[in-house]
Amino acid sequence: MSFLTAMQERYTTKKYDNTKKIDSEKIAELKEILRLSPSSINSQPWKFTFVSDTKTKKKFAEASFFNAPKITQCDTLVVFSRIDNIDAFEKQINNNLPEGAVGYYNNFLKDKPANEIKSWFSDQTYLALGVFLSACGVMNIDATPMEGIEPEKYNAILNDKNYTTLVGVCIGYRDKNDGNMPAKNPKSRLALDEVINSI
Ligand SMILES: Cc1cc2nc3c(=O)[nH]c(=O)nc-3n(C[C@H](O)[C@H](O)[C@H](O)COP(=O)(O)O)c2cc1C
């Protein structure tokens, strides 16, 4: 499948077939794809939690408003978190990154207000979200990115004070009656000349 075809055919799944499971090899592949996501200076200020246990998924569903049925029906919920402890982040890059990368952070980011540094962490993590959704498209796995969740409740379930939740993603296989698939609900986007400049 070409990447363009994958982008045309992928869509935000609203209804899952809860009898269909994702092969464990494919889940392992998705984990490795996330690990390989690019980030500024290779900062990797993120954590990705795969939740397939039914009881735990139910707890997340209860903290997810209108998205709850997708979480209970899908195969796996993936929670995207960014690091929230700047000291822990600095320790991580000092231990793992070359001098030049740490120097970039020290010169251009370290002295900024904490909320700006954390926003930069979020930017990197959303990039991984884009990689993940694209990979799912290529692998014929259906997905639902969800900001319609309660991050504080997610944090309480995950119980890792160094990280905070940004977004959840359901993955699995569509119910054949899902009305949101492109064949039933064609993709809606701004026109090419409204979003692309060629100079
Ligand atoms: C960061 C992000 C958060 C989103 N949050 C939700 C959500 O909480 N629930 C939902 O059903 N769709 C959610 N969406 C899906 C978008 O509405 C959808 O991607 C957009 O309308 C384009 O449609 P498509 O993904 O089917 O091409 C979200 C998408 C993104 C990228």
Descriptive key words:
binds flavin mononucleotide, single chain, alpha+beta, NADH Oxidase, 199 residues, 46% helix
Quickly count the helices: 9
Measured distance between first and last alpha carbons: 31 Å
Give the averaged pLDDT, no decimals. 98
Strand percentage lies at: 5-15%
CATH C-level category: Alpha Beta
What's the architecture, going by CATH?
3-Layer(aba) Sandwich
SSE order, as H and E?
Answer: HHEHHEHHHEHEH
Strand count, sense and barrel status of the largest sheet are: 4 strands, antiparallel
Specify the helix fraction band.
40-55%
Instruction: Report the uncertain regions.
Output: none
Can you list the ligands bound to this structure? flavin mononucleotide
CA-based shape:
globular
CATH homologous superfamily descriptor: NADH Oxidase
Domain module tally:
1
CATH fold name, please?
A: NADH Oxidase
Pfam families: Nitroreductase (PF00881)
Keywords: NADP, Oxidoreductase
Family: Belongs to the nitroreductase family.
Domain Nitroreductase: 8-173
